[in-house]
Write a structure and sequence with these properties.
Elements: E1 3-4, H1 6-19, H2 23-42, E2 49-54, E3 59-69, E4 78-80, H3 81-87, E5 96-101, H4 108-135, E6 141-149, E7 156-159, E8 165-168, E9 184-195, E10 198-204, H5 208-218, H6 220-223, E11 227-235, E12 239-246, H7 253-258, H8 263-271, E13 276-281, H9 286-293, E14 301-305, E15 311-316, H10 321-325, H11 330-339, E16 342-347
Parallel strand pairs: 3-4, 12-13, 15-16
Antiparallel strand pairs: 1-3, 2-3, 3-5, 6-7, 6-9, 7-8, 9-10, 11-12, 14-15
Helix pairs in contact: 2-4, 5-8, 9-11
Length: 378
């Protein structure tokens, strides 16, 4: 006989809203807890217990199943035909007798076990919910709140909201930036790993994906997929080069990213505390792409060199040599990263001044090319 229990179902509904866990999940965990409680109290196995919870009818039922036999060997799991027929005359040997149970008759230990299983199930459900929440935000931008700062190691603990917390290590922070407790900062979710203690989230402020996602939020043409970020190279805190391309020939990808009077790119520069950003037009013609990527320097000629390694020789006007190389080689290094080519910079006259630090025999090497994160929102 089903036992109506309004308080039980009211509590179940409140728990669903409070913890954000699905009703089906909660019911499954409660059923599992009751099965364990009955097993402990009656010394039976899983298949001797049936639990039925129907929230629509407001009904709750727990029953004990025992095999009907001629001769009882285990009174916990078996019942004699004679005793079974006292309950229902139609019972026969080989059938199973159903005995409704009253949950309030469960022993104290059994009740504690049930409570423990339910609590454990709730914690597990919350962890799974957190993991799902964070995994759906992998490779995305998150506004997090600074909780604490380790003055010795420089690590910063951030509150990610429903996703829990994560540590922003010193090596994932932009050089020179400082944090204060309660401050809101934007971080890029590099990876999310599910663990027994909940999601372990790897976050970064130096990852190129941070800048790419900022442009998606600021530039509608990137967000809707009209303009695509083809490649990105970044030296956090100093300079970023962003290569963009437009699917629509009527839309200027560079202009869309920079915005009227530079308002769009300037907003991102401010968010990055003054980090310089070069927005470059991507081209299928690699020589055109390399020329554009060396911006703001002007390029006279790009020669692709033979061999398995992607290499090229770039000629620039004499007075543009230092500009093409950049401070401590930064400009040519980012260009190599962006294009995937080792780049040898040469002056048009072929003569290097004493101050030039990158002779022809020491070209800037391209690290593994940084593929831009997925374009647009899914």
């Amino acid at each position: 006989m089903a036992t109506a229990n309004n308080e039980f179902f009211e509590a179940l509904s409140a728990l669903e809203k409070e913890r954000g866990l699905p009703e089906d999940y909660l019911i499954d965990k409660i059923k599992a807890a009751i099965v364990i409680a009955v097993k402990k109290d009656y010394e039976v196995e899983d298949d001797n217990v049936v639990v039925d919870i129907d929230p629509e009818l407001g009904a709750f039922r727990a029953s004990l199943l025992r095999d009907i036999v001629e001769e009882v060997e285990n009174p916990h799991t078996q019942v004699s035909l004679e005793d079974a027929q006292k309950v229902r005359k139609s019972y026969k040997v080989g059938q199973r007798m159903v005995t409704p149970l009253k949950t309030k008759e469960f022993g104290r230990i059994a009740a504690q076990t049930a409570k423990h299983v339910i609590r454990q199930g709730l914690r597990e459900g919350e962890r799974n919910l957190q993991c799902s929440e964070m995994q759906s935000r992998a490779h995305e931008l998150i506004a997090a709140t600074v909780v604490s700062i380790d003055p010795e190691r420089g690590n910063v603990v951030l509150d990610l909201g429903k996703g829990g917390s994560a540590v922003l290590p010193r090596n994932e922070q932009v050089p020179g930036e400082t944090f204060t407790e309660g401050q809101t900062v934007q971080v890029y979710v590099v990876d999310v790993l599910a663990t027994d203690r909940g999601p372990r989230v790897t976050i970064s402020r130096t990852h190129p994906g941070l800048v790419k996602r900022m442009f998606e939020l600021e530039v509608p043409e990137i967000y809707d997929g009209t303009v695509e970020v083809k490649a990105i190279a970044r030296e956090a805190g100093a300079r970023t080069k962003l290569a963009v391309w437009s699917k629509n020939p009527d839309v200027d990808p560079v202009g869309a990213c920079i915005g009227a009077r530079g308002v769009r790119v300037e907003k991102i520069v401010q968010e990055l505390n003054g980090e310089k950003i070069d927005v470059i037009r991507w081209s299928e013609d690699i020589t055109e792409f390399i020329s554009a990527a060396l911006s703001p320097a002007k390029v006279v000629k790009v020669e692709l060199l033979p061999g398995e390694t992607k290499s090229c020789r770039v000629t620039v006007p004499d007075h543009q040599l230092s500009l093409a190389i950049g401070n401590k080689g930064q400009n040519v290094r980012l260009c190599a990263h962006l294009t995937g080519y080792n780049i040898d910079i040469r002056p048009e006259s072929g003569y290097y001044g004493e101050e030039d630090e990158t002779p022809a025999e020491q070209p800037a090497e391209a690290p593994a090319a940084e593929t831009a994160p997925e374009t647009g929102k899914e």
